[in-house]
Amino acid sequence: MTEPTTSEARTRTLEAPGATIHYDVRGDLSEATAEAPALMLVGSPMDASGFTTLAGYFGDRPVVTYDPRGTGRSTRTDAAAETAPREHAEDLRLVIEALGVDRVDLFGSSGGAVNALTLVAEHPGPVRTLVAHEPPVVDVLPDREQLTAVCEDIYDTYRRSGTGPAMAKFIAFVQYPGPLPADYLDRPAPDPARFGLPTEDDGSRDDPLLGQNIRTNPTVRLDFAALAAAPTRIVVAAGRESATEMPGRSAIAVAERLGIEPTMFPSHHAGFMSGEFGMEGEPEAFAAKLREVLSAS
């Protein structure tokens, strides 16, 4: 296993319709090869800082991370209230184009996996291998109606009561094992203090997860016909510890719709992290599995 490195990340910007996108390049893009192309690591709404540890395990090839529009350093210049996966996918296409490379390998996690799947459905050419890690797509699940209702409830709670109550609902929701029961929303709301969250509303309403992604990502409808026809090799991954939770269940269902077996990765939804955002996974084992998957391309 390659030891993690701390190579300098060089920040670049590009102007996209309605946003200025910041992205980072580690390593020399000119050293990318057909066998080891540049590796993009993307999330949503998580920005580039969530991939600091994982990027360090791929010091033998160029690594690219970015901040999705409206998060981190990537500012929006339009007046749109929400950003859909298709817009994020177009931003990814523009970043790849700006890199000046023929193709990339792309690892997308959570909302980043949804955006990456959307990209490959519409513009598969620049992506050699896509590893879509736990894309939270509720449309593919049998309890889609309950899941959609819960997402709307979290959004409404955020607009009404702020971050603490909404985030508490979100954490309880994504960690719920198995399909949601019909009476899920009738149950008492979780206490924000249980998760170390604020109980007072600070009045802010600029959280991209609770104010946007909770509505736009889970309810996307993927173009499975286009994905199946794409020349890109698609790997759909789920965490061994989170396979029964909504994002893990979604990954397994997406793989089934594509006619492929899901690939199980170590740990959970944040398995590639080592303390980023307070989340601990198994980054070394996770990186080793990702390397194994990419080397099979």
UniProtKB/TrEMBL annotation:
InterPro entries: AB_hydrolase_1, AB_hydrolase_fold, AB_hydrolase_sf
Domain AB hydrolase-1, residue spans: 61-181
Record's keyword terms, sorted: Hydrolase
Chain positions covered by the region annotation Disordered: 190-212
Molecular function GO terms recorded: hydrolase activity
Pfam family membership, one: Abhydrolase_1
Superkingdom as given in the UniProt entry: Bacteria
Protein name: Alpha/beta fold hydrolase
Lineage: Bacteria, Bacillati, Actinomycetota, Actinomycetes, Streptosporangiales
